[in-house]
Amino acid sequence: MLDFLGDLRRTHMCGALRAADAGKKTVLMGWVNRRRDLGQIIFVDLRDRTGVTQVVFSAEVNAAVHKKAEQLRNEFVIAVTGTVKKRDADTVNSHLPTGEIELVVDELRILNVSKQPPFLPGDTVLANEEMRLKYRYLDLRREAMQLNIELRHKVALAIRKNLADQGFFEIETPFMTRSTPEGARDYLVPSRVQPGAFYALPQSPQLFKQILMISGFDKYFQIVRCFRDEDLRADRQPEFTQIDLEMSYPQPERVWETVEGFLQSAFKAAGVEIKTNFPRMDYDDAIRKYGIDKPDLRLPAFTDVRDCFSPAEIETLAINKDLPVIAVRIPNVGELSRKERDDIKPLFISKGGARVFEDFKRIENKNPGAGEKIRQKTGAAPSDLIVLVVGTAQNAKDDHPAGKRKVTPAEAAIYASAGLLRIALAQKYADRHGIFKKTGDPAKDYRFLWVTNFPMFEYDETDRRWVAAHHPFTSPHEEDMDKLETDPAMVRALAYDVVLNGTELGSGSIRIHRQDIQSKIFHALGMTKEEAQSRFGFFLEALEYGTPPHGGIALGLDRIAMILAGADSLREVIPFPKTAAAKDLMVEAPTPVSEAQLRELGIRVVVKD
Ligand code: ASP
Description:
By secondary structure, the protein is an alpha+beta fold. Helix content is 29%, strand content 22%. A hairpin with a 7-residue loop joins β7 and β8 (198-200). Bound molecules: aspartic acid (ASP).
């Protein structure tokens, strides 16, 4: 049944033919997307990555070809030559770009056959995801996936072009390297020639890009794979792609401008015109207003309504008067039933003893004055949902190492509890408020934000020590340098995140470029001199050879593509992704390896049960 291409050359793509092509002799090649056999006439929708064209095999026009077409089945690969014909008015398919024409075939070559696939690219109901990932090559033939991968390509290309135009060089850095501290576990690669020694796959090219600044490539970027072995959540992949960049001598604003420039190009490639400059917000303000460092600006901010209650009311409601009383407002949720109000409770995750008043009606009834004031202060319409998140006595302890911060840990616990509830409620009632629906207006649909001035350190309660909030190469604010050892809680970092609709797209910082300060930071993080030397000795040495001030950022390409594709999983925009258990179901990786291979590497596997 197999046939040969011979002298045939494809003259058109399947999705490209239009009425103006009528009368043209054409060669098309592609897959049999669908076949309808009406006896004397057989219709095949022929598909390639550009779309489908209806091709017609008519017994009347060419009996031999019609006979051969009877063998065609789903996903056979064929070449046809024929003449483009305008369809009769009553058979025009207005849903199809090629719907005004069809190809009347006079030669058919069957280039390859296909087994009956477990699912078809044209199926309207999706196969389950395991099946899709196992037969990824079939899944990728689906139009939606073809469009996602095309979009990803266009976005990446636009970013490359924009950065190249801004004077950046794309420079590769090694995959087989040593551990980089981005806070996850490393994937390790054993060395055969040095048994017992391992390379680590990079969690990011962080140190290499800084070294490139020392090497004089003052504007570097790379669209690069990074590898992090972490417990996977819905929006994580063990290998993912970053748009990584670094530049010499920048103020943070220069980095932001650069990013805004390439994001504008990337979004344009997807047909979305976004406006720059993005608004900026201090980390402390983000926490106070939204309870999270990646606020979704499409939803209203919190209101502190502590002053709406009288001291007596505060007392009766057992509210901690020294802590914020947060009103979370979700627009247009409408009247909630008793049961719906009860359903709010399980959505509430209490941090540090924070409490929720999910039944605002009841508060209003018992405290009409306060209720009225709260409605006014929050600007709530009658159909808006209001819930209150308050502190209790448990929240009050502030002998915490970060107790002197502008937002104290006790306050932060309330803001964080309210922030999580705000998002959970907004998601639960998304159909009612409609805020997450695309409006076609980029200013409403894509709310970008720079979050700046993060704290330099976070306190790790379990290990009882300070850890780097970003990574240990981030520069502190000049004016906070003297507090590095005396008061680490109060040191702010020259770090920034770019956030879109509640998703962190990327994060970066101005780096430390002086060896003495870098050593101090390692020390503040509890690293001994010897430890710092053994892990980062090469880098500390490099810093001593005339390192220019520098800074940069990295953004997740997969995430950007996912948002632009309107997809709800990274797996929809990664050609060959892994499952939540970090498996590739198509190639069946990871796998055990042979004894011989292990022996050669000097490795023995001990399986824990
Ligand atoms: N290397 C950092 C990361 O992957 C980004 C940066 O600081 O440039 O998160």
